[in-house]
Amino acid sequence: MRKLVIGCALALTPALASADKTFTGTKEGAWDCAKEPTVHIMRGDGSYTFKGACKTISIQGGENKLTIESVDMLSITGGNNVVNVGTVDAIKIIGAGNQVTWKKAKSGDRPKTSAIGADNRFDQAK
Q1: Could you tell me if 60 and 79 are in contact, meaning their C-beta atoms sit under 8 angstroms apart?
Q2: How far out from the chain centre does Cα 42 lie?
Q3: What is the pLDDT of residues 22-79, one digit of tens each?
Q4: How many domains does the chain have?
Q5: Is residue 9 part of a domain?
Q6: Which one, of 66, 7, 1, lies nearest residue 31 by Cα?
Q7: Smallest Cα–Cα separation from 97: which of 84, 78, 113?
Q8: How far apart are CA 65 and CA 7, in angstroms?
Q9: Is residue 3 part of a domain?
Q10: How far apart (Å, rounded) are the C-alpha atoms in residues 54 and 69?
Q11: Is 101 within the bounds of a domain?
């Protein structure tokens, strides 16, 4: 039984290791979501640019600046992040003082939004 468990764990490890792109130590960067459409930012005070169609971008940190061409789900946990998005389907925020500016909703007139915290803004670019 133990050999079966170890064998299963080893078989799954490569799939888990290459599942997402994660920015942890890098303070700035650019990423093409065609390479990997799911991205995690786990730091604060960074500046990042994302090209192509991203599936999910999650931020865990504060005072980041992001420019995103397109994303299905933008998830922010933290404060004072500034995000400019071309096309977005859904935005979820847990934190305060975040500002998301979007140009176009992926479906409908506006993206789906939810926010827990004070002073979060969702604005359509003019």
Answers
A1: no
A2: 10
A3: 988 778 999 999 999 999 999 999 999 999 999 999 999 999 999 999 999 999 999 9
A4: 1
A5: no
A6: 66
A7: 78
A8: 42
A9: no
A10: 8
A11: yes
Determine how β-strand 65-77 pairs with β-strand 99-105: unpaired
Amino acid residing at 89: D
What pLDDT band is residue 5 in, cutting at 50, 70 and 90? very low
The boundaries of the domain holding residue 63 are 20-124
71 strand-pairing partners: 54, 88
Q: Residue with structure tokens 């977005």? A: 88
Task: Supply 74's token pair.
Answer: 């933008």
Say if CB 44 and CB 61 are below 8 A apart: yes
Q: Which residues touch 104 (CB under 8 Å, ≥6 apart)?
A: 86, 87, 88
Any domain includes 2: no
Give the pLDDT confidence score for residue 8 in this predicted structure: 37
Q: Does residue 62 contact residue 78 with C-beta atoms inside 8 Å?
A: yes
Contact 113, 90 (CB under 8 A): yes
Give me the pLDDT at residue 18, please: 45
